[in-house]
Design brief:
- Helices cover 12% and strands 41% of the residues.
- By secondary structure, the protein is mostly beta strands.
Length: 138
């Protein structure tokens, strides 16, 4: 039952987030932004929303669900937290306090592959976003 529920959650998140990715470094909705940084092979995700709408002023918000998917489409890492919880910044492979890892179910997050393009998708307290990034491994 647990594996089935995880697949349903992952499919729902993917369907909700893959509505229209505009291209590398772009998010689905201009009002929500996921910023990806890589330094010495460590990837961090930060989440922002335009506030108030129409001002181009971005404020940091918490994410309570995150999924990283390589171009081949199989989920590499998926974590969730209750909606009342969340994190302003998430480091790939590090489980923030209050989060549960859904994929992989019983292992650590697999290492990202150098020179591979990934999509990171997140459900935020203030919307839904997705962006594409290329992992250099350096």
């Amino acid at each position: 039952m647990r594996g089935s529920r995880t697949r349903v959650t992952a499919i729902g998140l993917v369907l909700g987030l893959l509505v229209s990715v505009r291209g590398e470094g772009q998010t689905i909705d201009r009002q929500v932004e996921i910023r990806v940084t890589e330094r010495l092979g460590v990837v961090k995700f930060r989440f922002y929303r335009e506030e108030p709408p129409g001002t181009n002023r971005m404020v940091q918000v918490k994410a309570h669900q995150l999924m990283v998917v390589p171009q081949d489409g199989s989920a590499t890492w998926m974590i969730t937290a209750p909606r009342v919880s969340g994190a302003l910044e998430i480091t790939y492979g590090d489980l923030p306090a209050g989060f549960q890892q859904r994929v992989p179910a019983e292992e650590f997050a697999p290492p990202l592959q150098p020179d591979t393009t990934y999509t990171v998708s997140a459900i935020l307290h203030a919307g839904v976003g997705s962006t594409i990034f290329r992992y250099s491994g350096r």
